[in-house]
Design a protein that fits this description.
Rossmann fold; binds NADP nicotinamide-adenine-dinucleotide phosphate; 7-stranded parallel sheet; 7 helices; 232 residues; 44% helix; alpha/beta
């Protein structure tokens, strides 16, 4: 007798809220989903909502914990990097500690988790999707360290795509404009403006773009997806 088909496995970082949680919800109907983040209560609540998913609680900046958590994954169909921080400030007011924190989470943790999971991704002919930003395409005043981290993330994605094409691993950078999430609330608070969610993208819309990248047929590599709020 042939046993039941195993569902594809996805790991989504930053799944405790915002875009990552929306991506987990979008993937859950067709995937078993590992829910990454540090907020265990939020991850458990989402796991209850999404059958086939389970919390994957780890601080991405803790190299030892990350290696341990990734160690048990032998085959991975989808890796979505949504965890990130958005620390604003002009060059004049941004100390080295902010640059380091921003790069540690937005770039170094992404590179390290990808490296640890490459054998599992190769085994599955997997998809890697990176939540980049409009700031990864052009930099504005006051956004130097965030934009630089997202430019670096784009370069990482481009190199990974070139290196892994022969191994069947596909890589997509998704570049949304402003999205209605906690990060955007913090960004607007740093900028000192009004929070206008009706003018921003919904996390579900960004998750739709991620799903598009994940479900693209094997002959089509969706390399970059750019989403802007549609309103004026
Ligand atoms: P968010 O609501 O602030 O969520 C950030 C996520 O990252 C949380 O789930 C958080 O989980 C996780 N995270 C942060 N530091 C972590 C760490 N050290 N270890 C593990 N997880 C960590 O942000 P978002 O708006 O959903 O943004 C998601 C991604 O989209 C980011 O890469 C961001 O740069 C990008 N993006 C956002 C916007 C926007 O307007 N919101 C626009 C363009 C691009 P825990 O707190 O549970 O650890």
């Amino acid at each position: 007798m042939i046993g039941p088909e195993l569902r594809p496995l996805a790991l989504v970082t930053g799944a405790s809220r915002g875009i990552g949680a929306a991506v987990a919800r979008a993937l859950a109907p067709g995937h078993d989903v590992l829910l990454g983040g540090r907020d265990s209560a939020a991850l458990h609540a989402l796991a209850v909502e999404l059958p086939g998913s389970r919390p994957w609680p780890v601080d991405l900046t803790d190299g030892r914990a990350l290696a341990e958590a990734a160690g048990g994954i032998e085959r991975l169909d989808v890796l979505v990097h949504s965890a990130g921080v958005g620390l604003l400030g002009t060059v004049a007011e941004t100390p080295a500690s902010t640059w380091r924190r921003q790069f540690e989470i937005n770039v170094v943790a992404v590179a390290e988790l990808t490296r640890l999971l490459l054998p599992a991704l190769r085994a599955a002919g997997g998809r890697v999707v990176l939540l980049n930003s409009g700031a990864g395409l052009s930099a504005r005043a006051g956004w130097a360290s965030y934009a630089a981290s997202k430019f670096a993330l784009r370069a990482f994605a481009d190199a990974l795509r070139a290196e892994e094409a022969g191994n069947g691993v596909r890589v997509t950078s998704v570049h949304p404009g402003r999205v209605d999430t906690q990060m955007q609330r913090e960004v607007v608070a740093q900028e000192g403006g009004d929070y206008r969610p009706e003018s921003y993208l919904r996390p579900e819309s960004v998750a739709g773009a991620v799903l598009l990248a994940v479900t693209a047929p094997d002959d089509a590599a969706l390399t970059e997806l750019v989403l802007r709020p549609a309103g004026p």
